[in-house]
Amino acid sequence: MYLADLLNSRGFFERTSNWMSADGMADDITFMLSRATSATVSILRIEQAQINCVREFELFEDQLEGIEDKIVFNSRSMIEIQNEISPLLSTLRIMQDTLIKLISKSLGVSLPSSINDTIKKLDKYEIPDAIKDLLSKYWEVDGALIRNYRVLDQHFSGIADHAFLQIKPGKKVLILFPDNSEEQSRNKFTYDKEICGISLLRIGFDNLHELIEKIAEFLGHEPDRLQASTRLEQLGDLRPFRKRLLSFLFESNIVPNESGGKSLNISGLRISQNEEGRLELQKLLLSEEKVKSLNG
Predict the structure, then answer these.
(1) Bridge partners of 255?
(2) Which residues have C-beta within 8 Å of that of residue 273, sequence separation ≥ 6?
(3) In 67-79, which positions are buried (b, 16+ CB within 10 angstroms) versus exposed (e)?
């Protein structure tokens, strides 16, 4: 399941939304969007935890002396950042491989299950040159690097432990990834290039999103907003039919307001069943009184 409002609010996957309507593509596109939602949530968590780390340090900054460019820093917020690295790497890898499946099904061409195996023998597959060029360029920029870091993190050594709080020139969290991403021994890792893992993964998501959208464009899919999605299969047999609530989707997004600023928009989607077995959908909004109570 994916969060349409979250992705729409950032202008994500507009052409992929239309790709979903192609024959036989709905389930695979939905899976891709669910992974994209997970990646977006991870990135947002990292951004907020990074802000928290800086605030936590600044509470005691006036009592600290001899501060240089970066220091070792530890707190619950730093652990939260480190804990998001492995899941985000895995999610990006899954999205890479899922894209190959989407291309294979859309073009009716048999391709390997992984993007890595596809790239190795790209010239042997009967897919348009434009798509080959897009895949090759993406892989050269950072696609292969993300794949290497994921393999390293998953199978050999965690890579989120080289963590610092940068003080100068600006405060931010640094999770440094090894320079030698193909090295399997932690003892041989080097960090001379100071590769910021947080930036690498954030930019890596943007580049993968751009690749997916460009391939959707090449396939002729026009941009459109994603529609709200929820899955009910886990409920099993809905009989005997009766009046009941089946699902509730909560959505909260920052949206522009009439004064030119931004406001928090909170809404819900109710999915219920009636006595005849039909599904009923209703958009729910908060009352002014409840909004005021949230604001204190």
Answers:
(1) 263
(2) 238, 241, 242, 243, 244, 246, 279, 280
(3) eeebeebeeebbe
List, in order, residues 6 or more apart from 115 with CB less than 8 Å away.
96, 97, 99, 100, 135, 139, 143, 147
Q: Among all chains, which residue has been given the structure tokens 């994916």?
A: 2
CB 213 within 8 A of CB 19: no
Alpha carbon distances (Å) from 50 to 83, 87, 92: 13, 17, 21
Mean pLDDT of 35-64: 96
Q: In what order do the strands lie in the sheet with 279-285?
A: 244-256, 262-273, 279-285
pLDDT recorded at residue 1: 82
Residue 285 contacts by C-beta under 8 Å, 6 or more apart in sequence?
266, 267, 268
The residue with tokens 């220091």 is 71
**Among the listed residues 122, 115, 173, 125, the one whose alpha carbon sits nearest the alpha carbon of residue 148:** 115
What percentage of the chain exceeds 90 in pLDDT?
Answer: 78
Task: Look at residues 284, 220, 274, 223 and name the one whose alpha carbon lies nearest to residue 252.
Answer: 284
